Amino acid sequence: MAKAADIGGKRLINLAPDAWVQWVTQRPEVVAKEILGSEFQWISRETDVLVKAYSPTHGDFLVLNELQLRYTAHMPLRMRAYAALAHERYRLPIYPVLVNILPPPSSLTIVSSYEQEFLGLRAIQDYRVINLWEVDAEIVFGQPLPSLLPFVPILRGGAEASVVQRALQILRADAQLDQLESLLAFFASFVLDTPLVQQIMRWDMAILRESPWYQEILSEGLQQGLQQGVKRQLIRVLQRRFGEIPREVEVRLEGESVEKLESLMDSAIAVNSLEEFITALSA
Q: For residues 273 and 282, what is the distance between their CA atoms, to the nearest angstrom?
């Protein structure tokens, strides 16, 4: 069975580190010197990759890469913390890059800096944001950028079977890229019918299960399943106590967290009327 790192961010960036750092920094003169360890972090993640790079103009510096399946509200703080830890450990300038793989919920706005002010003191950390769904798939084939080959289906213009097959042909032509076919199939399943994906390429679940992005999607599904289960139980309690529940109440419960739903369960048991519950829901 492949190790998680074999199809995590470090493996992908290591396929062509020079091409990667040139792409994320948008500077063709930059070269990658080495991929560094992440021992300095409190939590080592397969999607955090630190690359020591060199530019004739700027000398040695660090390219901090965070490959995130979906942007979350705490990403700015993580980027600030990661950049500070890397700077302290290696004493080199930091170029932080956040690569978002899939679009976040429409309720979230992606930002490219962390800012906090407290008692007159300010903390600021800028970082570059790359949203893969905004990246043209042709860039992967033209530059080339083999690190992005598994993500071709979710790039702009990449959701066509013919484009996915082009990426597949490149993977199969290089023994070093062979394991990435399952990851390509995984992301192809987001935009193509599963039977078609299974027809044109192979799934190796033993490899795919070790992907940090597969694990994150699985975790998302489990969380959503838990959320739906708690919501159904809450509605059942309300129905038993107060009869038919208005559709708008069910709609308002849809986006609530598991923690909020569990709190509302306590309210559903304690209140004396549906109106009281709606008041608690609005609190």
A: 15
What is the pLDDT, as a whole number, of residue 2? 38
pTM: 0.76
Tokens representing residue 187 in the block: 């992301």
State the Cα–Cα distance between residues 124 and 275, nearest whole angstrom: 45
Between CA 109 and CA 115, with CA 114 as vertex, the angle to 5 degrees is 110
Summarize pLDDT for 200-257 with one digit per residue, the tens. 887 777 777 778 888 787 777 767 766 777 788 788 888 888 888 888 888 888 878 8
227 versus 87: which is more confidently predicted?
A: 87
Interatomic CA distance for residues 194 and 182, integer angstroms: 13
